Amino acid sequence: MRLGIATYDYLWRYDIEQTLEHIAKHGFQMIELMSTPPHAWPRDLDKKKRDHISELLKSYRLQVSALNPTYGDLNLASPRYTVRRLAIEELKEQIELARHLGSKIVVVVPGSRHLVGTPPMEKIWNYSRSGIVELAKFAEDNGIIIGLECAPFRFIERAEQLKRMIEEVGSEFVKAVFDTSNTCIVEPLQSSIDIIKDFIIHVHLADSDCKTWRKLPIGMGSIDFVAVARALEAIKFQGISIIELWYPEAEPDSSALISKRRLEAIGWRA
C-alpha cells in the first residue's frame, strides 16, 4: 500500500518551502497538504504563489494526494446561516486549489455540534447535508472528490453515521476518509472499516491510546497497525495512506521517520 505524509506537524514550525524540502528528503512522494494558514490557504495564494507551489512540488517530485484545510472553525453544521455559507465558499476555494495543484481529494469534516444551545440533531444533520450536496456538485464540475471524515467530538463520529450521510448525498464525488486515531476513540477500527468499505478513498494513520484524542507517531499508542493493514488489504483498498501527526513534543522529522520506518516494516511503501 502506498504511503504519504501530511504537512500538519510541520505547519507552524517550518514555512511551506522548508516543509516540502524536509518531506522530500525523507523519501516521501505523496503528501496531504494542510491548505490553511500559514502554508497554503487559498485566499493567500494568487496565481503567482500557486504556480510557485506547483513548481516546488514538481522540483521535489511530490504529488498532492489531498488537501485538508483543518476544521477548527469551518462548520457546515452551524446553526448560523452566515457561518455555513462561509464554510461552503471556503471549501469551494479548496476544491479550485486542489484542481490547480493536481490533487484529486479535498478532506471535509461534516461539521460540529455545540453542546449548549444547539438545534436538534435532525436540523444539524440537514444543515450539513445541504452544504455537502452543494459542494458535491461543485466538486463534480471540477473533477475533485470530497472525502468525508469522522471526527470525535463533532457530530459525525461513527462509521454508520458517515455511511448514512454519503448515501443520502448520493454523489459519486463524495467518498469516505478513514482515520485511525479519530475512529479508535469511539469504535473498533475493524468494524468501522467494514461499514464504510465501499466508500473509503483515503486513509489517515496516527497512533493513539484510544482514550484521549491524539495524533501520535506510530508505535507510541496502542493501535494495532498490522491489523489495520490486513483490514485494508481485505477490502482491496487502492488509495493513499497518509501519516497524519500532530505531536509538538518532538521535532517533526523524527516523528515522520519513526512512523515511516514502522509502517514500511508491515507492508506500506512511501
3D architecture notes:
It is built from 9 helices and 8 strands. The protein has helices at residues 16-25, 47-59, 81-101, 121-142, 159-169, 180-183, 189-196, 225-234, 252-264, and strands at 2-6, 30-34, 63-68, 105-108, 145-149, 174-179, 200-205, 240-243. The model has no long low-confidence stretch (mean pLDDT 96). Strand 2, helix 2 (47-59) and strand 3 form a beta-alpha-beta unit. An 8-stranded parallel sheet has the order 3-2-1-8-7-6-5-4. Helix 3 runs parallel beside helix 4, helix 5 packs parallel to helix 7 (189-196) and helix 7 (189-196) runs parallel beside helix 8 (225-234). It has a single domain, classed as TIM Barrel. The relative contact order is 0.15. It is globular, with a radius of gyration of 17 Å. The longest helix is centred in the middle third of the chain and has 22 residues, at 121-142. It is α/β, with parallel strands linked by helices.
Identify the strand order in the major beta sheet. 3-2-1-8-7-6-5-4
| Overall helicity | 40-55%
Report mean pLDDT, rounded to a whole number: 96
Shape label: globular
- Given as residue ranges, the uncertain stretches (5+ residues, pLDDT < 50) are none
* Largest β sheet strand count, sense and barrel closure: 8 strands, parallel
Number of helices: 9
Specify Rg, calculated over alpha carbons: 17 Å
How many runs of DSSP E, i.e. beta strands?
8
- How many domains, as an integer? 1
State the order of secondary-structure elements, H for helix, E for strand.
EHEHEHEHEHEHHEHEH
Question: CATH H level: which superfamily?
Answer: Divalent-metal-dependent TIM barrel enzymes
Question: If you consult CATH, what is the topology?
Answer: TIM Barrel
